[in-house]
Amino acid sequence: MNQPAHLPTALEIAAAGVPVLPLRAGKVPFGNCRACANNACGGRPNMKAPGPCTCPVPCHGWAAATTDLHVINSPTWARVWREAAAVAYHPGGAGLTIVDLDNSEALAWARATLPATRTVRTTRGEHWIYQGVMQSANAVRPGVDIKSLMAYARWLGPGTGTMAALPDAVRALAVKEPIPARRPSQTLTATLRGGQGECRHRTPAYLDRGIAMAEQRITQARGEIHATVYRMFLAVLSTHGRCDCLTDAHVARLFTAAQAKGESVRHCTDAWTNARTALGM
What we know:
Blueprint: H1 7-15, E1 20-24, E2 28-29, H2 69-72, H3 75-83, E3 86-89, E4 96-101, H4 104-113, E5 118-121, E6 126-131, E7 137-141, E8 144-147, E9 153-154, E10 164-165, H5 168-171, H6 204-220, H7 225-240, H8 248-260, H9 265-278
Parallel strand pairs: 6-10
Antiparallel strand pairs: 1-2, 1-3, 3-9, 4-6, 4-8, 5-6, 7-8
């Protein structure tokens, strides 16, 4: 039996440390296995940290990406490779971020704004590949998507040019513009609910330390990610949530840390809502 057309490419990419997965026609992943159909398993194996998928066949989209040559070349993956239309990879799993530029206007913007890096030609534009990871986001600008953590990109070749470090200008594209917040005086006091007296939380450094500590504990969690995220959301809200101190930018930092550990936006929103409910907010 002839070797599937895309298998040699997948093995070569994986051997270089880049997690790969097969794509079917239309540039979409293969459907989940029977046990995971309709996300009956919760969307990822055991709802733990992102990938690799532990199912015997490619499951859960980007989470199926792997560098395990035995898995990629296994009999259980043979069927999908025979049906595969292309090879994809998980940029975040390889420590990379792709700025997907989908038209000439987006390309012109990138050339005028972003540092030069490795590029790969696509059907309608280019992929600019940077060293570093971040949350993925679609439509950050007209014709511009970001693919890194919890995303996949079609393999179109190694590209040309020297790869640059992920610039702050790209990271900033995924951050929503915060709602302007009132800037209280350093000495302003307020009565908290329950008559607790002076509001210490209006000191910017105090709030920043709280957010940074929560980010650190989420980032360093080795298991029970859901529970850790909920506990940190609860801790931040219980300390800072009643004084109008928190802005969208603070919440975005917490959500970004949680998503980097594999949490979806929906799970982050649910955890935040549940924490507010538990505190009667």
